[in-house]
Amino acid sequence: MAMTDVASVEAAKRILAAVAMTVEARADELSALDAALGDGDHGVSLNIGWRAVIAELDGYDAPDVGALLHNVGLTIVNSVGAAMGPLYGTAFVRAGKAVAGKHEFDGTAVAVMLEAARDGIADRGKASAGDKTMLDALTPAAEAARGAATAGADALTALRAASDAAATGAIATRDMLARKGRASRLGERALGHQDAGATSVALMLKAALLALDPAAPSTIADVPRAVSADEPRHPHSTAAEVGIVPTDADGNRGMTGGRMRVALGSDDAGFPLKEVIRQHLQDKGVDTHDYSTPGHVPSEVDYPDVARAVAEAVASGQEERAILVCGTGIGMAITANKVPGVRAAQAHDVYSAERARKSNDAQVLAMGARVIGPELAKSIVDAWLVADFAGGASTRKVEKMNRVDATYRAKTGS
């Protein structure tokens, strides 16, 4: 393959599309890996970022690959919350800057991009190789590309070397102690778990290689399947795609003209975050019904009153889904779960929100405005909205929960 082919903007867009498809296909597995060590949102959040990239890909006005990568980095930063957005966004921005204006790529250009991405993540995350992070795949990838370039390799050969090294590096994280983030608190319990960030780096480099060289042998080991085999798998969607959802057997429950509607409720502590969520849902085409204080004016209001009103509307079938926000989300969840037939889940990470739907068929999501920020809250809401009840073994467990509810209702005569 000629160097000019590798360096073309169109070739780069094909690579980006391939990366996005790979991330979507493996999002559940990446989140499952992350759940063992962190928040469990790696795959979901990364997928949100890459969907945003694909949505804007044709509109990028980039004269060269460097400018294109810079645009990709900014899109990821703007669409992905928590730490991962700035980390991956910085990696792409730095990589783009390193090859700005170039129209011919060789092995050295590949090495320069990977080195710049590595340094950007290290600077932003204050991490190093050996900390059980994405750098444990990206650092060996950059070193392998540099070694290949020094030996006179072309761009494709250097990328192949980088991909193989990243795969090996990702697998090696299983034997590392975590030194950064929430995982650092686990000590030796982190051993045996593969880092989600390192794995996503390896998967993206492999996707890039296959986009340029479909005949390249696959060397990366399968990501461990941490999702139960009896649960159906499906690609994640974005909130923009949940405007239209199937109606239930009653035809229109919780819907307005076939569009999804979400009930909202908050006390005065949760009011600001509830307003952010309301606007986020409306921007994505989801209708809302606000049970908060009249006129949306914060005032002294007790969360049990709001939670009860919303939960009773869900139990009666008037509303299908609901989101409750108070200071911590705890009081809202406890109160809502007192209403027979309601399953409310407090969630402050994407993975828990997703599992609340898939495993527990939770109709109500509770969050705390004093616990999480607006961007993470948006990602949590997106994941909860698009997740469907998995059925399978989970059906039996939800039925048992319902029987517990029914048993105590019978005892009290309610």
Task: Describe what is shown at a glance.
The protein has 15 helices and six strands. It is of the alpha/beta class and 414 residues long. The chain has two domains: 3-212, DhaL domain (Serine Threonine Protein Phosphatase 5, Tetratricopeptide repeat, Alpha Horseshoe); 240-412, Sugar-phosphate isomerase, RpiB/LacA/LacB (Ribose 5-phosphate Isomerase B, Chain: A, 3-Layer(aba) Sandwich).
| Spatial shape | elongated
Order of helices and strands: HHHHHHHHHEEHEHEHEHEHH
Oligomer: single chain
Rounded Rg? 23 Å
Report the sheet-strand fraction.
Answer: 5-15%
What is the CATH class of the largest domain? Mainly Alpha
| Number of E-type strands | 6
CATH-defined fold name of the largest domain: Serine Threonine Protein Phosphatase 5, Tetratricopeptide repeat
The CATH architecture of the largest domain comes to Alpha Horseshoe
Largest sheet: 6 strands, mixed
- Classification by helices and strands: alpha/beta
How many structural domains can be distinguished in the coordinates? 2
Q: How many angstroms separate the termini?
A: 74 Å
Number of helices: 15
CATH superfamily of the largest domain: DhaL domain
Proportion of helical residues: 40-55%
